[in-house]
Amino acid sequence: MNKLRLILTVLLIAAGSALIILLVLVKPKTPLDHTYAPAFQLLGRSTKTLDRALTRVIPVNEVDEARYGEAIAQRYESPNDKKSPEGKYLNDLMKDISGFKKKKFAYRVFVVDNAGPNAFAMPGGVIFVTRGLLSTLRSESELAAILAHEMGHIELGHCFDAVRFELLSRKIGNSPLWQLADVAVRLMLRHSFSKSQEAEADGYSYDLILNTDYTPSAVGMAFTSFLEWEKKEGRGGGRSRSSMMRDYYATHPDTKLRAEKYSEQARIWWKKNRGEKKYIGAENLKKLTAYGTKKFEKEYVKK
Amino acid sequence: MEYFLICVLAVLLIILWKNTSTIKKRLDLLETSLRQAGTAIPEYVPGKNKPRKEAAAAPQTAAAKKVEPETPARMTGPEVKKPEPVPVRSEQKPAAPKPESPASLLWKKVEKQFIENWTGIVGAVFLVLGIAFLAVIAALRLTAEYRFAMILGIAALLMAAYFYLRKKEGWLRIAAILRSIAGAIVLFACLGAGVIPGLQFIENETGILALIGAGVAFNLLLGFIGPAQVFASFHVLISIVALSAAPKTPVTLVIAGTVVLLGIAMSYRNPWQYHLLLTLAGYFFYHIYWYQVYVEPSGLALYSLPRMTGIIVTAVIGIAACLVHYRKSYADREFAVLPFIVHLSNWFFMGISFVFYATGSKWNTVILAVAGIAAFALSRRAKVLSIRWLKVTDTLVAQAMLIIAIFTLKRWGAESLLVTGALYLEVFIFLALMVLEKDRVLRTVGVVLHYLSLSLFAVNALAIIDHNDLNGQIINSIAVAVAILLESVFHVYSVRRPGDQIDTVNVFKRDTRTLDLSVGGVFIGALGIVLAIYLHRYLWSGAVIAALLIALILLRQRIQSMGLWVGLLLFAACAHFITWGWMNDLVTRKLLCTAVEGSPMIEMPLARLIGPAALYGAALFFSALALMRYSFFDFFKKHITWPGVYLFTLHLVLYLMFITKPVSTFIPAVAWLTASLLYLELAVRMNPGAHEPGSLRAGLARHFILAGYALIALFAVRHVTVHLQSELFIGLAFGVEIKLRLLIEGYAILALAYWASASIPKKGISEKIEKIHPAVWEVLIVFILMTVALEVPSAWHPLAWTLMAFMLYGGGLIGEKTLSRFRFYSILLFLTAAFYVAVISGTTPTPSARLADQPWVCGIISLAMLLGYAVMYFKTKGLADVEYPWNVKALLGLIAAIHRKKNIWIFYPLIIATALFFYWSFDRAILTLLWVAEAFAIFILSLALRESHFRFVSMGALGLLVIRIIVYDLSQSGTITRALVFIGSGAVMLFVNILYNKYRGRFEK
Fold first, then answer.
1. What are the phi and psi torsion angles at B299 (to 5°)?
2. B518: how many CB neighbours lie within 10 A of its CB?
3. CA B915-B919-B925 angle, 5° bins
4. Among B729, B840, B848, whose Cβ lies nearest the Cβ of A268?
5. Centroid of chain to Cα B666
6. Chain A interface, mutation test: which of B721, B750, B786, most A Cβ atoms within 10 Å?
7. What is the pTM of this model?
8. Above 0.85 for ipTM, yes or no?
9. Binary contact (A16, B664; C-beta < 8 A)
10. B805 and which of B6, B265, B438, B829 could share a cystine (Cβ 3.0–4.6 Å)?
11. End-to-end CA, chain A
């Protein structure tokens, strides 16, 4: 027994040493010196699961969500939206992407006059995109990744979960009280799992992009574009440390971590799928012409 | 004039009233004493007991003497009857008189002196004043010469009265007073002739001084021949006062000095302490006045005659006064407060007087040093004469002078470290001498001074540190090293003489030597810290500091010093802190000190820094090892190994961090985890059970295990905060790439499993460890759960939890004795998986077209596995005989409840989960068919497990589904779907019927 244990000890220590040698040779580094965000993200999954279970027992459904989205769309829609080049381009692109949807309502994209790169989703298939996003991203594939991310929020029910009590109130009345319930949940729980939801939407986006002609690198590239913008604007793009409080209250995982994660996954995909051709779409974004409308041969890449 | 006389009368009345009050108090005291003695006191009737004339002259008994009135007023008081002797009974012993304090005695002496002589003094003053007034009146009518003659005539009359009365019995004292008054009048006349307007008739300065000198001489003569010190003091003081009115010249000072010297000479004749004090104080104030009026405003040269005169006269007087107490008459006396105060006052007056002449000259060092040495030599004379208080006083004064002399070394351009170093050495020599002399008071003072000077030296050494000054670095480091050496020698000496208690503090107030905290040991550690701060920038310094630490560790072991132990711990902790800081600086700031070569700091590439940094910090490992090995304490009769083990571990943790983190942020935690395995193995191989609990091996084994836990905890913290963020893949052989985080997690799981399965020695290790250690299994499970949650895609989580439930259940069965609680954990995982399948798996959309990505695929597999788990659970022990190594009653209660109602906890959650999964995952059209299938499965289960309630549930569900088919499916579904549902449902129900009829017997049994 002692001998066996000794052998095991030697083997384990040898394994540890081998791992250390491997690390010395490869010299891998982490994006941040340290961060609590992944831990919070991990812990947030259980809360998110319970929150989703709560939605399941509330008597509201996709039809209610569609009506809600329609109301939002009517509020923000203007006749120029679909006629503007950006509006038309985004909606064309969204039409291609939303082929993967499971929810039965139509997706609509609205352009917001804001210089910062941002996009956000509302229940019922309504997505807002800032003009700054269009100028920050470098290709259509990156834009598609962002739209897919927002679509993920809607498909995965994140937006629906946030307004479920409001939807219920529309059904049964007593609106202010139920809206208060949404606010309460948002205040008390949302911080704990909003990062998990973002990570889930990122995963949805990556899965969706994999099923399109766009390059799998698009997701990682989109985050890299955000990082560059943050750095240019001096908004903490070069931050290497985290604090526990900031990491807890942050709504999104750190962009550096997201960029590394999806760049690495894309690298592995390319390695496994040598010879495949995927689409970048820089020209499409430049000319505001969706891939579904026009394909540029030079935009196909092999890695 | 009338007003003045009324005032004088009023003052006299107040004095008389005060005196009467004092007499009354004394009489009361006497009565009380007599009553206590049991003597009857006759009633006093005013006028009845007349005072007898002879009472003052009558011989008195010793008892009466105690209350004998000492003033003339008292002599006129009522007669007090002499108390009869009272037989003293042995059982009524009088209470022993309370010993009076020296301060009280001193006050009584002062009071006695004043009361005995007040009439004389006040009388003389008033007489002089009266004559002065007369003189003033006369001045208006007579010429100055006549006035002078008139005053002298009055003095002559008084002297005549003196000569007449001194031979009369009982009039001697009055006569002496009259004589003193005459002396004062003569001096007044002389002074007036020279300097008082109205009486002045001499203009020549020499003449004035001569006349005043004559008056002073006459007074001194009277002081010399006077019968008591009060007269001597009176004549000396009025002489000084008179001189203060005379022109301020060096000659005047010399005359005043002569007067004071003669006054001091009177103290040689008799031990007149009050007189000496008054004389010295008189000179002190006169000298200040003389200096302020004459020397200071004139701005004389440093070495001018007046200044030199002042210095010499002051020195002569100071020395003369000092030597007063170095006479055999003071030998073998017990400590007396008054001579001590007088002696100390003399030093004080002399010191303050010399301050006026302070020139800032560097030669003051020599003068002070010589004076200090002389004073020290003088104090040795006191030792020979056995005048201990004088020895102590003058030794301290000598030491003070020498300390001041050393501080003045700055005037010679000496640097502060040299000054503080010299001070330290001087005090060290002083302490050594005092230790050899075995004088406890002086030795205590020496010890205090020693540590003060050492603190000053150390603080100064830190304050002047300049890492860019190579010469300074070398010299100062050597100085600190020498101090460490000297302190070590002194410490060994003091510790080896425990009875002397040279520098020890008994911390715990116990009569045990080991617990005595020798302060020197702490200071050695502090000096070590200073040295480490000086040297830490040199790469070789790691070895030097480690060597010093090891030497001190060996010394502690040898001399068993608690003080050195404390100092060592401080030194070791600080040395490590300093080393870590510098290592971090080296590798993060990419700086390397090459001060030895002349250039202070140069920037270097990281690769060239890690090696030197590693060597730099490595030496400290040896010191921590020495701290483990040489850790025996005689007092505790065991090894105290924990400081060594934890310091070693902390150093290992940070050392690995600083050295490996710049290469890869992943390495430190992996290295810590690997080190924890070595710790565990070392602890096991120590075989602590074969040794005494206090033995070195047992101590090491225990703390190695605890430190190993700490390493695991550190790994976990770093894994969560650093590793979790990484999504990097790392290439292995044959082009295989694996997620780096997963690789580390795999290794961690193996290491934790090794830890958890390790047989911790039962003996020699504390019970706490035995209690804690089983929890490593829980740590392992949590870590695996975390890994699965991270690395397995969300869609496949229920399957992962189900598999883990299987594994834990199996583990709980195999490790029945120690791991039975795993079966309970498997239930928790089972329920989690069921919940996930019910709520999440069916409602999570995916854009992926791949079958493997579809949540329902995993859901179905998971449900099948969960069913398998449930069956296994029923077929085996379930949660029977689950035990915990800890006292967790609430948890055991829950386990028992689950075991009792396993259907509710196991099967029904599974049934509900399946139904919900179908509901969320599949089209409503085929939902009825799926639920019918589920009901059929429940029926099969009831057959297999022979549980009737499953059959009832199955039948009930089928009944409800029939209603649903009729109400819902007939109206909502398409024709083909409707047909399929009908066919399927019908077939299932037929099967149920067949099976029921075939196996009915099972239920009946």
1. 55, 50
2. 27
3. 120
4. B729
5. 41
6. B721
7. 0.74
8. yes
9. no
10. B829
11. 53
